[in-house]
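Weekly modeling sync, notes
Attendees: S.R. (lead), two postdocs, one rotation student

Agenda item 3: backlog of single-chain predictions. S.R. asked that every request posted to the team notebook include the full sequence so nobody has to chase files. The rotation student volunteered to paste the first one in as an example of the format we agreed on. Action items at the bottom.

Example entry:
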Amino acid sequence: QVQLVESGGGLVQPGGSLRLSCAASGSIFSIYAMGWYRQAPGKQRELVAAITSGGSTNYADSVKGRFTISRDNAKNTVYVQMNSLKPEDTAVYYCNADIVGSSWSLASYWGQGTQVTVSS
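Predicted structure, as returned to the notebook:
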């Protein structure tokens, strides 16, 4: 079984920073793309940032210049550094990863989500 476990969410004031982490564990053969999504109340889940196994990145326009995604392949972990946070960044943030596990087939896995609240 493969699990993604997120950490690092919380309450922060506007203009502040948070760093989210997501570690993949279990029977993992290879991890391809990893990413962060978010879902605010009443809204659809949206892509925040993604990173390929080679390090290429992609960001939502709303977070470009403020968020930075990175990964540590040795630790099967993806991070997102979030700076200059705004109230509209408030959402549940989910980690996602495309993983080949013990079944030798590619599957998309999700973390349980971590709440980020930006408020004064």
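Discussion: group reviewed the output briefly. The CA atoms of residues 77 and 115 lie 19 Å apart.
Action items: rotation student to repeat for the remaining queue; S.R. to check formatting next week.
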